[in-house]
Amino acid sequence: MKNIFLSLCVLSFVFVSISLAQITTSGLSKAEDLNRPVYGLGLSAGWGSGVGLSFRSHFPSKSSLQAVFGIIKTSDKLAMSVGGEYQYDLVRNNAIRFFIVGTVAYFYHGAEFNEVEGPFRMGGGIGGEFYAQNALHITVEGVFVYFSDGRVIPLPQIAAHYYFF
Q1: Cβ-contact 53, 43 below 8 angstroms
Q2: Whole-prediction pTM
Q3: How many angstroms from the chain centroid is the CA of residue 21?
Q4: Torsion of CA 88, 91, 97, 101, to 10 degrees
């Protein structure tokens, strides 16, 4: 009985190894192989690039641009952010992408004047984008954010985008 179980385990391992050895990517490991722009629409939240709806364009190179805009208006106060990101790919394949990121944003909150301390922000760091399902991708970034009042703080950012291939 032990020999049959051991034989099945070895046989299963061999078949899995053979099947994994035959998996290849479809050529997206090189950013230059992407011969047309890819666009994504989603939500983004971060102190370096803003909070709200986002639009991302990945060019047929190693570069991406992302614009973020969000606004909430209550009876007497307005909360708003506008910002963007530049991403330069380091590694990319069908399921994952690692990149260097640069961010810029402006935050506003108030009725008559801006109550935000350090409303203008710039940042730089690294990020990763991960395939979730179908055309949905999740992005996580770690960014050192410079606030216009002089503070520099390492902060996380997160986004989810649906890509139109």
Answers
A1: yes
A2: 0.76
A3: 29
A4: -30
The 10s digit of each residue's pLDDT in 60-119 is 889 999 999 999 998 889 999 999 999 999 998 878 999 999 999 999 999 999 999 999
Domains of the chain by start residue, with CATH: 27-164 (2.40.160.20)
Which secondary-structure segment (H or E) carries 142? Answer: strand 136-147
Contact between 118 and 145 under an 8 Å Cβ cutoff? The reply is: no
Measured in degrees and rounded to the nearest 5, phi and psi for residue 34 equal -80, 105
Distances (CA, A) of 33 to 29, 72, 100: 8, 40, 20
**Torsions phi, psi of 97, nearest 5?**
-145, 130
**Buried/exposed 105-135: b ≥16 CB within 10 Å, e otherwise:** bebeeeeeeeebeebebbbebebebeeeeee
Selection from 133, 129, 125 nearest residue 97 by Cα:
129
Of the candidates 68, 69, 83, 64, which has an alpha carbon nearest to the alpha carbon of residue 129?
64
